[in-house]
Amino acid sequence: MTQQILPPPIWVDKPTTFNQMVVDLSAQPRIAVDTESNSLHAFRERVCLIQFSTPKKDYVVDPLVLQDMSPLAPLFADPKIEKIFHAAEYDLVCLRRDFGFEFANLFDTMQAARILGYQFVGLDNLLAEKFEVKIDKRHQKADWGARPLTPAQIDYARFDTHYLFQLRDLLEGELREKDRWGLAREDFALACDVNEPKERNNGASWKRFSMRKDVSPRELTILSELCACRDLIAEKLDRPAFKVISDDMLLDIARNLPEKDVDLAGIGMSTRQIHLWGDQILSAMRRGLSAPLVKPEQPKRPNDAALKRLEKLKNWRKKIAKELSVESDIILPKVYLNKLAENPPRNLKELEKVMSKTPTRFAKYGTQIYNLIGG
């Protein structure tokens, strides 16, 4: 293993340093970007670090101190500056949610590796394989919202962007060699369209139980009260809901209907949990026992013809994916599967319109898809 000795990254937590960094980044044809959030340590996660690299410098930005990130907006939206990410989707969702950024001109090294058919596409795997660089993963689940961060944490954060330039260039060469560069560019463009994320902890977390066939309507109603109670506790503590009481424990409460603290202990709640929240949990359970039954939104079931088309498309893309040694969604992303199964194209022109954002896939597979489900 060879490990390059690098100068310390530039810690950016003052407006003057921040403005100097923005000037530097704005002059670059491409920059590498990553973020660190605190989803494992807070009720509502937020971006706690933003890392940038240029070929000469690594920056680690503290948005918890600086707060106003708006000078970065033109960088992310500028089509003339390429932004290199690894596994961009989550970073883009978080940056859009917290700062309202729009995006143009991305290169996602993980998606590039997936299109090439790499078996292991984690950044640590790729850096080890390509550059013999080993990343210390001890900090992967760190509380990035805590301050101060240790020098080791800051150094770890920097490694998520430092090598992306070299990795990007190697992967582009391989994509061109395999004639998959056009497909990759389309996927990078598609990734720029980030939907506004749904609020994860809005009291409706019980809805995920509604998909289970082993949960009765009354149990589901009790779970709706228990989840609302747990979310209130978690929000007050600024802690993820699962770190207050687990889903499995809530389900056990809904099924066993404990009456007293001792019954909660029998289900597996700790003495501390019972002391802090036992009364609230029992009250929520009782409300659920007498409340009107909740009516979960049932996903609309496709008709039999649509299901048959969906099955045909899945089998077809699985076969093609196996031939190319890639995962199925590289051949045809899920969003197109459902669209085409529910609304089959009447002619090739119609199919071309549906697939207008991925003309490479249409050119390569359009006729096959149409012959499979069109008409």
What would you note in describing this structure?
By secondary structure, the chain is α/β, with parallel strands linked by helices. It has three domains: 10-191, Ribonuclease H-like superfamily/Ribonuclease H (Nucleotidyltransferase, domain 5), CATH 3.30.420; 205-290, HRDC domain (DNA polymerase, domain 1); 304-373, Orthogonal Bundle (DNA polymerase, domain 1). Helix content is 54%, strand content 8%. It is built from 18 helices and six strands. The chain has helices at residues 15-26, 63-66, 73-77, 88-99, 109-116, 123-131, 151-162, 164-177, 181-191, 217-237, 247-256, 261-267, 271-290, 304-324, 328-331, 334-342, 348-354, 359-373; strands at 10-12, 30-37, 47-53, 58-61, 82-85, 106-108. Strands 1-4-3-2-5-6 form a six-stranded mixed β-sheet, sandwiched between helices.
Major sheet: arrangement of strands: 1-4-3-2-5-6
Major sheet: size, sense and barrel closure?
Answer: 6 strands, mixed
- Uncertain segments are none
* Total count of domains: 3
